[in-house]
Amino acid sequence: MVFLTTRLWLRNRLTDRFWRVQEVLKHARHFRGRKNRCYRLAVRAVTRAFVKCTQARRLKKRNLRTTFKSLAALAKRRQQEGFAAALGDGKEPEGIFSRVVQYH
Question: Which stretch is the leader sequence (predicted)?
Fold first, then answer.
């Protein structure tokens, strides 16, 4: 785009700056206090929020991996206990749903 006058060039630059500020303020609208209105404070808050968001995603993936591993190990143990009880080795716990009936 060719600007023939300095006035047009400045006007174009001004609108770019306006939309750049609006983009940051859009992400800061839900913050409390002056952070959602003042550009300088909003830039800091939005940058910090994006950094925390990235760290939280990594932490969530790490937590899900450890949880999944422990749940898989627990399921494997429960499955083996179920096979042992189905074979009838007498290790089934007592209770209402127990197949081993004891008469007193």
Answer: none
